């Protein structure tokens, strides 16, 4: 019996490079497609673009913002998803009040750097908090991440920031999931901490929860073998 295709959804300013280290393992006997959000400026638009180009039924794995897109796909068309993996992500709307304004200010500051100094300068600053602290001297890893961000334009960055600031609360989506689900994060993820993923896991009936040791927010690029192993267990023979 043919296996369901696996759609891989990148996060903010990311592309196929975030999934590339995992593909040799994931592609064995299975079609894998990496999604491009283009200039979509809402998570709903990203989800609908994905669905318009997707096969009738598929497995879905999202990283960071890409997992929020996966949750919107589940909101819109849950019957088309055979299983879902949510990596290094969150599920709540932007906080009200001062906390929400602080998030918007931080994202705007990065956008201002990208506009005034270029995406590479912004990426070199941003990446410092995205990996395990001990990997900050790993020039190959950091260059791969910075180069990935640099492939996206400032307009894409602005559109995706708008999408994230307007994100909906997905608690109801998590509670309604009825397919095999994996929640995964890096132990040292400073953007989306383990506690946040534990809260997500508690809302999803029967979900698996895995923490990747010695990894930050970019766990698929930092610890590809460990992440691929967990994803293969989640996929099973489906």
TrEMBL record:
Residues 55-224 form the AB hydrolase-1 domain. GO terms for molecular function: hydrolase activity. Pfam families: Abhydrolase_1 (PF00561). InterPro entries: AB_hydrolase_1, AB_hydrolase_fold, AB_hydrolase_sf. Keywords: Hydrolase. Gene3D superfamilies: alpha/beta hydrolase (3.40.50.1820). It comes from the Bacteria. This is Alpha/beta fold hydrolase.
